[in-house]
């Protein structure tokens, strides 16, 4: 299939490479010439602009952009995709943005007779390279089935979440819970250790009790508890604090728009904000436990 | 074995019955004559006071009391257990109290040459009746081995958590995390549904993603998501809001004593407090989701 | 002076009338024909669009719009003010918007050789009608002096806050503190009364102690403490909960943009959000005390 | 008048000296011999124990102790004041403790025919030395009138707050609000400055607007805004962070006992806790602004 791909950053570039590996023909665009050159070397064709990309005979377009402002500009701008793409071309936006903007863009696409899916991912740059991402997909069942094989070339777990925008809703809701759970584990582990317990024993008890959660049994923030977690390698790699901060910002903003209180979510956002402001934005988000550990502050 | 048992409430009575069923000889005490009569009918002998119980030839004493004040009074009071019990008798306190009081009582017991275990439980009245409780046990390894067979007559999962007080530490840390996780699930589910997602689809995604936790996959607070959760039977049964509130109070107080911040835990305590003050203290703690659901408030 | 005025809502209309009363010639625009007709009857001239207004010989333009999106559209839109206004005309935006947007618009104005002031107000519709508003003004000292006489026709207290955007900064910072202080007073009064104190005695003590604040001594949220406060007339009139919610949203968003934690501000926003979601958005914001008072919930 | 005084610490010693200066005869007790010796040198008589003090012919006893446990022990202990004091002697406890304990002790005193006042102070060691303390007094109107002249020898502002315990209620409620207001000012000032405003200009605007409060206009936490505030002398002197932390602990514990939510109060407690755990417990509590200021962390 001839596929267009916009946005060749840390996530987009390896995703695009996986589409090439799966045998697809690729036309790509990015503002960075170096990023484009990398993909061209791997077999893709460069387009000079989103409009130029849209005017080729691509059957499907994937975008992977930093934030809602870029998505609106690329899709809805005077010289954007919708102004130039043929009707019927399937549009898949894998950017992580707020659900209401995703729905606004999808509605505009429909008005142009372009079906659209929102398909944000989880799995990080590792999953993007390995082709093991999870895609949370919003859109009609029919459009989902049409897009699924292409997504399957880039990920392992392709989940239909319901209508337009629901991929973003699922991601924002999951990551809101994740950000809170991690803080909960940080508080429970720090308190237990401050009261004299061994962290590995405590984690073992929690992991077989009602406190059990992914942040404890798979990604425990206390150093040494899990050999392969970021906590045991200085909080390098993993899911950065600033990415968690971005997602909590999306959650609290979406909550504001639908007038839904998120008490713990809002406090969590402030705590990651404070931790980032101390210069820790690039550390894995589980490093937030250092806000609590007196020994770690030394 | 001849065992003494103090505190025959909703938890203590079925625990004591399981000791009788296991073939132990039991001498019991409670302020409620009706509670004592029930156990006597089942084969136990009544003692007139903690002191009287302590002066029998019991080899081991189990207590199950409401709060730290009762534990201090029963063990340390002028006419309490320590003033009358023979040296060497093993003392097991299964009450849920703060770790520092547990350690204070254990130290006093040691000074009387009485080994002591703190052994709070999880599993609720259902687990107490079925003999499937989890015991989180603090004390020396030797004392733990000595107490384990008796605890095994009342529970299924007997976990050694380290030295004196660590059973309480494990419980308070786990329940702190549980109280936070449940609020996190409540926020994520409420936000997702307010943004248009189906609650069962959303729970399914969370349960296979990084938001996965016991409060979502085993005890989901949204009605209808899990057939057997309290949420699907009007939040009856289960673990009461006021019990969660008590445990969060223990957590924040223990945190205060060791000067450990628990930001989300303190906010969680206030939210359960507000919910209880609205008259919901007897509902299962997962009903806290009604603080967030506009539809549920109608 | 010939002045243009855009935005004739609850605040803008009485402000415009005060300019007429002061003897200024007025050309006005609003999307609502009824609002325009009211001002025309009072002596103003109607313009058909912002562009048409800009093309008259006005020497100064005042705008009073609901939110940042309207300000950007009216000033920066393809058919907006900046595209049509003569260089040198002084622009004064009295809308309450985020400081960064205010600075973006001011920079665009400067690029058109139009000096600009941001001049949000406090004082409510009562102050707008009486001409007793406070204006918090950002912009150069020279521009401030030029705009001051016009603002003085609409307000009593005209405060220069520094460069462009600083009027918005002052308002957002003050109202962040106000929203927090009111909750602090609500908690202190509710706790004191729950512990058995008379509310008027307690307020009297606070007002002569270190808890003293405007929310206690001038606007006490407990009914009956201050005869003229909204609390003593069923929380009608005053500064609506939804307006406070909007301002806290501006504060937390501005904080996010400059990576500044606002722990209490974020929690305050959620509490007003919860109160608004219960149907109380139109009540004066001091009604937030009803989140705390058990007696008031009956 | 012959007065007994127990507790000659940083606050108690200068208070006792002021009673001597006013011409009263003083019998004193403290566990510290040095503290007692200081007062004896100034003219007081030493008592060997609280019981010995109680058995003299004192007409009135003042106590100034660190916490509720000391108050219970000194008044209610087997060898405490109530077991030995003559009926009719007026007891005044100026310690800062929780209201429920204050009421419990007052009820026990009444049962011994001893009238009692709770009379916590504000004003710090400076006010104690200068005799300018504020006393917040709980007890009957008659007992208040009887105690007032003695209190007036130690303070300037003697406020009757209602029945037994209400002095403590007033103090805890005021200081809850103070702890919150200070954080509100810290957030507003930090946000304003991060957004580019001059701190003195911003404080000036707040102090004439609805954000006005003692923490802003009298005790502003931003360095340089108020020449005489602790912020302008490195946060030395003043009201220590750990004292604020103690008072917020009393507030949240009192709130727990009457099942009253204090959302911001609980979060404030955690923030001062975190700041104290970083080693800042001895700094004036307004130093909490350093949790927010990026520049100050360098």
From TrEMBL, chains A, B, C, D:
<dbReference type="GO" id="GO:0050661">
    <property type="term" value="F:NADP binding"/>
</dbReference>
<dbReference type="InterPro" id="IPR029154">
    <property type="entry name" value="HIBADH-like_NADP-bd"/>
</dbReference>
<dbReference type="GO" id="GO:0006574">
    <property type="term" value="P:L-valine catabolic process"/>
</dbReference>
<keyword id="KW-0520">NAD</keyword>
<comment type="pathway">
    <text>Amino-acid degradation; L-valine degradation.</text>
</comment>
<keyword id="KW-0101">Branched-chain amino acid catabolism</keyword>
<dbReference type="GO" id="GO:0051287">
    <property type="term" value="F:NAD binding"/>
</dbReference>
<dbReference type="InterPro" id="IPR006115">
    <property type="entry name" value="6PGDH_NADP-bd"/>
</dbReference>
<dbReference type="GO" id="GO:0008442">
    <property type="term" value="F:3-hydroxyisobutyrate dehydrogenase activity"/>
</dbReference>
<keyword id="KW-0560">Oxidoreductase</keyword>
<feature type="domain" description="3-hydroxyisobutyrate dehydrogenase-like NAD-binding">
    <location>
        <begin position="165"/>
        <end position="292"/>
    </location>
</feature>
<feature type="active site">
    <location>
        <position position="171"/>
    </location>
</feature>
<feature type="domain" description="6-phosphogluconate dehydrogenase NADP-binding">
    <location>
        <begin position="3"/>
        <end position="162"/>
    </location>
</feature>
<dbReference type="InterPro" id="IPR015815">
    <property type="entry name" value="HIBADH-related"/>
</dbReference>
<dbReference type="InterPro" id="IPR011548">
    <property type="entry name" value="HIBADH"/>
</dbReference>
<dbReference type="InterPro" id="IPR008927">
    <property type="entry name" value="6-PGluconate_DH-like_C_sf"/>
</dbReference>
<dbReference type="InterPro" id="IPR013328">
    <property type="entry name" value="6PGD_dom2"/>
</dbReference>
<comment type="similarity">
    <text>Belongs to the HIBADH-related family.</text>
</comment>
<protein>
    <recommendedName>
        <fullName>3-hydroxyisobutyrate dehydrogenase</fullName>
        <ecNumber>1.1.1.31</ecNumber>
    </recommendedName>
</protein>
<dbReference type="InterPro" id="IPR036291">
    <property type="entry name" value="NAD(P)-bd_dom_sf"/>
</dbReference>
<dbReference type="Pfam" id="PF14833">
    <property type="entry name" value="NAD_binding_11"/>
</dbReference>
<dbReference type="Pfam" id="PF03446">
    <property type="entry name" value="NAD_binding_2"/>
</dbReference>
<dbReference type="InterPro" id="IPR002204">
    <property type="entry name" value="3-OH-isobutyrate_DH-rel_CS"/>
</dbReference>
């Amino acid at each position: 299939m001839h596929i267009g791909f916009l946005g060749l950053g840390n996530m987009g570039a390896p995703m695009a490479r996986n589409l090439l590996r799966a045998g697809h023909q690729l036309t790509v665009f990015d503002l960075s010439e170096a990023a484009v050159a990398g993909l061209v070397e791997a077999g893709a064709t460069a387009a000079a602009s989103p409009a130029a990309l849209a005017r080729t005979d691509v059957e499907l377009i994937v975008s992977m952009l930093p934030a809602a402002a870029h998505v609106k500009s690329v899709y809805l701008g005077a010289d954007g995709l919708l102004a130039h793409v043929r009707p019927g071309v399937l549009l898949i936006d894998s950017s992580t943005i707020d659900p209401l903007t995703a729905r606004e863009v999808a509605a505009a696409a429909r008005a142009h007779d372009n079906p659209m899916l929102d398909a944000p991912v989880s799995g990080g740059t590792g999953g993007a390279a390995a082709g093991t991402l999870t895609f949370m997909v919003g859109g009609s069942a029919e459009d989902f089935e049409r897009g699924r094989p292409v997504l399957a070339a880039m990920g392992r777990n392709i989940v239909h979440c319901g209508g337009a925008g629901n991929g973003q809703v699922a991601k924002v809701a999951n990551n809101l819970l994740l950000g809170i759970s991690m803080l909960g584990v940080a508080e429970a582990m720090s308190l237990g250790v401050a009261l004299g317990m061994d962290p590995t024993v405590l984690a073992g008890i929690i992991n077989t009790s009602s406190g059990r959660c992914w942040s404890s049994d798979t990604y425990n923030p206390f150093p040494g508890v899990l050999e392969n977690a970021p906590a045991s390698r200085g909080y390098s790699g993993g899911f950065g604090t600033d990415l968690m901060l971005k997602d909590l910002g999306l959650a609290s903003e979406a909550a504001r728009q639908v007038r839904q209180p998120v008490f713990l979510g809002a406090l969590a956002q402030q705590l990651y904000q404070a931790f980032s402001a101390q210069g820790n934005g690039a550390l894995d988000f589980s490093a937030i436990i250092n806000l609590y550990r007196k020994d770690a502050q030394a």
